[in-house]
Amino acid sequence: MADIQPYLIVSATMFIIGAGGVLARRNAIIVFMSIELMLNSVNLTLVAFSAQLGDPTGQMFVFFVMTVAAAEAAIGLAIIIALFRRKQTLNLDEINILKW
Amino acid sequence: MNAGTSPVTVEALTFYLLSAVGILSALLVVTRRNPVISALYLILNFFCLSGLYLTLHAQFIAVIQILVYAGAIMVLFVFVIMLLNLGDERKLIDGMSWKKVVAAGLAFGLLMELIYVLGFLGSSYAPIDAQRATEIGTVEFVGSQLFTKFLFPFEITSLILTAAIVGAVVLAKRKID
Question: B18 with B11: CB under 8 angstroms?
Answer without folding.
Answer: no
